[in-house]
Amino acid sequence: MKHRYKRRINTVKNLLVAFCGLDGSGKTTQLNLLADWLESNHEHIFKTRQPCDFYRQNDKVRAYLDDGIVTNMHGIALLAAADRQFHVSEVIEPNLQHGHVLCDRYLYSSIAFFKARGESVDYIKAINKDVPEPDLTVFIDISPEEALRRIALRDAGQKTLFEEQDTSVFVKVRDAFLENIPSSALIIDGTQSKTAIHNEITSEFEKRRSFV
Fold first, then answer.
1. What residue spans of 50-90 are helical by DSSP H?
2. What positions does the domain Thymidylate kinase-like occupy (predicted)?
3. Residue 42 burial by Cβ neighbours in a 10 Å radius (0-12, 13-18, 19+)
């Protein structure tokens, strides 16, 4: 009797990886290291960031970020949510069809920063309710004091952003991050060496792959 064997084809799922943390935590550096590692293994990747220019270049947003001037923080949060909706549908989802997508900041950054600005977490989640969960969320944790020290070194001679002028803001942002990032997130001590952090990320990335 002739037996027929069904061939099993393994396919690797493309992952959406979100990098989060305080400014100066090293998230952009680690995103780039992961991208280089994936490309060295002949995998397709797309690097992006949130928020996009729709939000960043808005006059009302810039007035707050640069000088702390705001007439309606609810409206600023809505602009961030709209920016994210466009980004997901026009950038993230199409690129996931072709490779891994690595995103510098994501919804959890909005939750953390807007909570620190006095907005309700429930409100931020409600206006972002359709945003997909990443396959891997990386939170690189450093103290607010260390974050501001690194920012000062990085941006020497440049104008200090409004929220970077007071350590208490970053204390609130860090607390909000830790309270609201997914339980499945990879939380890493950001005071380790770049190599040690990178190794933790690549190890976790490999675990999150799913084979069908």
1. 53-56, 59-67, 73-87
2. 21-201
3. exposed
22 appears as a binding residue in the annotation:
yes
Tell me whether residue 28 is annotated as binding: yes
Q: Is residue 181 part of a domain?
A: yes
Answer yes or no: is 24 a known binding residue. yes
Span 31-46, pLDDT tens digits: 999 999 999 999 999 9
Does 4 map to a domain? no
Return the sign of the alpha-carbon dihedral for residues 25, 29, 35, 37. negative
115 belongs to an annotated ligand binding site: no
Domain range for 52 is 16-206
Alpha-carbon separation of residue 64 from 69, 75, 118, 207 (angstroms): 4, 12, 14, 40
Q: Per the annotation, does 202 bind a ligand? A: no
Q: What is the domain count for the chain?
A: 1
Q: Is 157 annotated as a binding residue?
A: no
Q: Which CATH number fits the domain that encloses residue 126?
A: 3.40.50.300
Instruction: Give the predicted TM-score (pTM) of the model.
Output: 0.90
Residue 183 lies in a domain: yes
Q: 118: annotated binding-site residue?
A: no
The verdict on whether residue 59 carries a ligand-binding annotation is no
- List all residues 6 or more positions away from 135 whose beta carbon is below 8 Å from its beta carbon: 13, 15, 16, 17, 208
